[in-house]
Design brief:
This protein is of the alpha+beta class. The protein is 47% helix and 16% strand.
Length: 235
């Protein structure tokens, strides 16, 4: 994953903007892409759109950077598989939940200098600290000039009890949030903040948190706009 993130960073700094850039760790690759890669390898997916000349130029830049930095071409088939099945996870989550499996997604973001550390430490701590976790993987799907995100996927098997499920769930979330903040990342990316992340928002924003509270109060003086998802209700 560290190698793949470095490749994405180099590509983003050329100025090109492929429509899709995704890096999946080995665990996410086993089921859908195992036929196209060796064991324990990660997979980078790219999709370019636009005029043919622009697409060919992007393709050449991506191909050169990836191969120069240790990448091996897997052909176009993995991209076709991703495009066809990219939204299947929503249905699969429903099936897993019915079987008593706790599933969720948690995304964070960070500068390029920190994101690989966040991925590696989070994965290690989750498996070491939360034995109920059966599946915990990560992929990067939104990249920019200054950084990218990691989108973690969770599968855990708590006892069939709401309190035990909450304990496992909160344990995983706490580790992800704590590691992100430790490495100067953001506790949220495209999913926003919300009630589950709210206890860490002040630590992330530090002195600017007071501005967030004042703006929220100014815009929503009666506290009726989705209360408790940006500022705790007690504040």
């Amino acid at each position: 994953m560290r190698q793949g993130l470095e490749i994405i960073q180099k590509i983003m700094r050329t100025g090109i903007r492929p429509a899709v850039i995704r890096l999946h760790d080995w665990l996410e690759c086993e089921k859908p892409y195992g036929a196209f890669m060796e064991e324990n390898e990660c997979l980078l997916l790219f999709w370019s759109e636009g005029k043919e000349e622009m697409v060919k130029a992007e393709e050449a830049i991506i191909d050169k950077i990836a191969k120069t930095n240790g990448g091996i071409s897997a052909g176009s088939k993995p991209v076709e598989i991703w495009y066809r099945h990219r939204n299947d996870a929503a249905d699969e989550y429903e099936q897993y939940g019915a079987q008593g499996i706790l599933v969720d997604t948690i995304e964070v973001s960070a500068q390029w200098s920190n994101i690989a550390d966040i991925y590696e430490e989070t994965i290690d701590r989750i498996y070491y600290s939360v034995p109920e976790v059966m599946f915990f993987s990560g992929h990067s799907s939104h990249s920019y000039l200054n950084g990218t995100n990691i989108y973690f996927q969770l599968g855990a098997f708590p006892q069939p009890d709401i309190e035990d499920a909450k304990r496992v769930y909160d344990s995983v979330w706490s580790i992800v949030m704590e590691v992100a903040l430790k490495h100067n990342g953001s506790i949220g990316h495209h999913h926003g903040v919300g009630k589950q992340r709210i206890q860490w928002i002040e630590r992330e924003h530090e002195s600017s948190y007071i501005l967030i509270k004042k703006l929220k109060k100014m815009i929503d003086s009666k506290g009726i706009m989705n209360p408790g998802t940006l500022v705790p209700i007690k504040e």
